[in-house]
Automatic annotation (TrEMBL):
Family: Belongs to the TFE family.
Protein name, as recorded: Transcription factor E
Domain Transcription initiation factor IIE subunit alpha N-terminal: from-to ranges: 79-212
HAMAP family per the UniProt record, alphabetical: TFE_arch
GO biological process assignments: regulation of DNA-templated transcription; transcription initiation at RNA polymerase II promoter
Matching Gene3D superfamilies: Winged helix-like DNA-binding domain superfamily/Winged helix DNA-binding domain (1.10.10.10)
Organism: Methanolapillus ohkumae
Single annotated GO MF: DNA binding
Cross-referenced Pfam families: TFIIE_alpha
Binding partners and assembly: Monomer. Interaction with RNA polymerase subunits RpoF and RpoE is necessary for Tfe stimulatory transcription activity. Able to interact with Tbp and RNA polymerase in the absence of DNA promoter. Interacts both with the preinitiation and elongation complexes.
């Protein structure tokens, strides 16, 4: 399994699939599962509530079909009463549960699939013709993805450093914007947003910050 404590991995996955997606990965059942099965695992209280409601429905249908056997009717009535009570309790318990909807689960699975982090097998039901998708997570490719992300981040840092090195900056004291010298000349050193005078901005500290980040990468192939 992948190390979600690793800030690079955690950050990458959060950008890719969000908190809900990370929850999904952490709670993914073993083996091949359908999107609905995943959804049920992610919403345990709502699943209990749904099952309780199904039981009520089933008993109501049985009542209709029972005919006029008094003992059977009595038994079913008793069972239904209990099932309804259970369903109401389960519904109340699940009301506060944070919900990850089936739609969200599908979206996450699709993004993971596009990034080759899931294996999907289609199965057609011989009778109904329905297609069932069975999913399995495989995060083996994550190291490669993280390496790519790192290289991208590194390149961006170098680009940013070069930009900071080769320009002189003027900024609005109200934090509206920051312009390079040529742009500031064009606005007569006045903030085009709020009208304040722009002031020279020393970016030495910022450049040191970038240098620090670059150093953290150590030896990085471009
Ligand atoms: Zn301004």
């Amino acid at each position: 399994m992948i190390d979600l404590e690793d800030p690079l991995i955690a950050g990458y996955l959060k950008r890719l699939i969000g908190e809900d997606g990370i929850t999904l990965i952490q709670n993914m059942p073993d083996g091949e599962v359908t999107d609905e099965e995943i959804c049920n695992v992610l919403n345990p209280l709502k699943t209990v509530s749904k099952e309780a409601e199904d039981k009520v429905k089933k008993l109501k249908a049985e009542m209709k079909a029972v005919g006029d056997n008094p003992t059977e009717i009595k038994r079913l009535e008793k069972e239904l009463k209990k099932a309804e009570k259970d369903a109401a309790k389960a519904k109340e318990a699940s009301a506060e549960e944070y919900e990850i909807t089936l739609n969200t689960v599908r979206k996450i699975l699709f993004i993971l699939y596009e990034n080759k982090f899931t294996i999907c097998r289609r199965e057609r039901d011989a009778n109904s013709g329905w297609l069932t998708f069975r999913w399995q997570i495989n995060m083996d490719g994550i190291d490669y993805q993280i390496e790519r992300e790192k290289k991208k981040l590194y390149r961006n840092l170098l680009k940013r450093k070069a930009y900071e090195d080769t320009n002189i900056f003027y900024a609005c004291p109200q934090h509206c914007l920051r312009l390079i010298f040529d742009e500031a000349v064009q606005t007569d050193f006045i903030c085009p947003v709020c009208g304040e005078d722009l002031v020279f901005e020393d970016n030495e500290l910022f450049k040191q910050l970038i240098d620090g980040r670059v150093e953290e990468f150590g030896e990085m192939p471009k």
